[in-house]
Amino acid sequence: MTEAELREVQAVERVAQVRQAILGELRKVIVGQNQVIEQLLIALLAKGHCLLIGVPGLAKTLLVSTLAKVLDLSFKRIQFTPDLMPSDILGTDVLQEDPETGRRRFEFMPGPIFANIILADEINRAPPKTQSALLEAMQERKVTVGGRTYELPQPFFVLATQNPIEMEGTYPLPEAQLDRFLFSVVLDYPSASEEETIVHLTTSAYEPDLKVVMGRDELLEVQNLVRLVPVPERVSKYAVQLVRATRPKESYAPEFIRQWVQWGAGPRASQGLILGAKARALLYGRTAASCEDVRAVAFPVLRHRLVLNFAAEADGVSPEQIISRLLQTVPEP
């Protein structure tokens, strides 16, 4: 084994150790939600962004802020409201007077978008103009204000939340903007035992002592390492076949896809499956992605990219049921 290969193996082992350490720190605060935490870590390592869907009170904000502390990253929470303007997120030029010369000049005052981890709370409550300002920053990782461009800090990770209950007075994200989120992560209610533990912890004097597990520079190195994880040809072919099978006009699309799906997932879904599989393999200390990794990230990658038709709505079919059947139908190459 060459020295370069040895360094890569050591780096992969280090990522697996860090995963366990992060989980250990998060469990001091967060009860359960293991799958959600894993999906957030995968998205973060893959340089993607997440859409978090769950009813109020499931510790979405606590989870994200705790993750920022454990990784020693700056964190900002933006509460989206109908009167929120793009400048409230990006920042604005403010007229300032120099105390020495008395001259006035415009000075840029950065908005809350200038942080490593952004929690965009209830993103569907803000008007489309404000939503698009955030989504542009997500895609370009820089913002333009007053004709000048400002780079956002790296790493840059956006988690946008949506409340599935209240849809009155909201501006649902169009499919083209939903497609920019790598994952759509669903938080469900805790089990009875987990809820008992939550109640016990949150109503006592318990204060967790959180430790920093990984710094910013090491995280950036790991993000770069994800791109170097090899993907066997059969794995990439499986990911592409899964995505293409969601398109009703494809010749080999299953009958239930033609029956219930209006529009299937685009090429970003194929990219998301492979990137997610690479990051997951790394988190588990493996040096190559597998079909198992692709299947593990299929739900968060595909659930927000399938547009169902009226027949699916009438039959009470959900995207999760379709993805589940798809994983059973599409064989590995």
Secondary-structure topology with pairs:
Blueprint: H1 3-26, H2 34-45, E1 50-53, H3 60-70, E2 75-79, H4 86-90, E3 91-97, E4 104-110, E5 117-121, H5 128-140, E6 142-145, E7 148-151, E8 157-162, H6 175-178, E9 183-186, H7 192-202, H8 216-228, H9 233-244, H10 255-260, E10 261-263, H11 267-283, H12 291-296, H13 298-302, E11 307-308, H14 310-315, H15 319-329
Parallel strand pairs: 1-8, 1-9, 2-5, 5-8
Antiparallel strand pairs: 3-4, 6-7, 10-11
Helix pairs in contact: 2-11, 9-11
What labels describe this entry?
alpha/beta; Rossmann fold; Helicase, Ruva Protein, domain 3; two-stranded antiparallel sheet; 47% helix
Could you please describe the fold and organization of this structure?
The chain has 333 residues and is α/β, with parallel strands linked by helices. It folds into two domains: 228 residues, Rossmann fold, CATH 3.40.50.300; 104 residues, Magnesium chelatase subunit I, C-Terminal domain (Helicase, Ruva Protein, domain 3, Orthogonal Bundle), CATH 1.10.8. Helices cover 47% and strands 15% of the residues. The chain is built from 15 helices and eleven strands. The strands form four sheets. Strands 2-5-8-1-9 form a five-stranded parallel beta sheet. The protein has a two-stranded antiparallel ribbon with strand order 3-4. A two-stranded antiparallel sheet has the order 6-7. Strand 3 and strand 4 form a beta hairpin. Helix 2 packs across helix 11 and helix 9 packs across helix 11. The longest helix is centred in the first third of the chain and has 24 residues. The radius of gyration is 21 Å and the shape is globular. The protein starts with a helix and ends with a helix. 37% of the residues are buried.
